[in-house]
Amino acid sequence: MPKGPIEPNAAKALNEMKYEIAHELGIIDDMEKNRKTFNSGSNVLFAGHVGGQMTRRLIEMAEKELVNKNSQNSVKG
């Protein structure tokens, strides 16, 4: 399996999603306020939270796309 996005243009959108989720989780704000108290262990923990949310959202987006395709195909056929 290739490392990174299959579609090169998706890298920017994925990066934006990552920062959006980190901001929603308050991670960006915490990092700016407590920059000196973070360590590699906390960074790994935050990366896990953000990555997990990204995965959930990407799966949700794919499921919605499949439902839309199936509903369009059933109308045509």
UniProtKB/TrEMBL annotation:
User: Out of the domains of life, which is the source?
Assistant: Bacteria
Keyword set includes Transmembrane: no
Task: Give the UniProt keywords, A-Z.
Answer: DNA-binding, Sporulation
Q: Which Pfam families match?
A: SASP
Q: Which GO terms describe its biological process?
A: DNA topological change; sporulation resulting in formation of a cellular spore
Q: Where are the transmembrane segments?
A: none
Task: State a single Gene Ontology molecular function.
Answer: double-stranded DNA binding
Q: What does this protein do?
A: SASP are bound to spore DNA. They are double-stranded DNA-binding proteins that cause DNA to change to an a-like conformation. They protect the DNA backbone from chemical and enzymatic cleavage and are thus involved in dormant spore's high resistance to UV light.
Protein family? Belongs to the alpha/beta-type SASP family.
Instruction: Write down what this protein is called.
Output: Small, acid-soluble spore protein, alpha/beta type
